[in-house]
Automatic annotation (TrEMBL):
The chain crosses the membrane at residues 12-32. The keyword Transmembrane helix applies. It comes from Hevea brasiliensis. Keywords: Membrane, Transmembrane, Transmembrane helix. This is Uncharacterized protein.
Amino acid sequence: MPHRTRPMTALLVFTGLNVILVSSITPVYDFVSFHPYWERRREHRQQEGEAALTKASA
């Protein structure tokens, strides 16, 4: 007896999974983007740039 496919069930599961993934991406993106590590890294790179400028002009 062949296996019966259920396209409507598959479509609903696929759509539901995508809705869950799309709704959960914003908090994950915000957590990763605004993590304190990036702020420290940005400040460190800015200080390095300023040090290089003062070294080059002196």
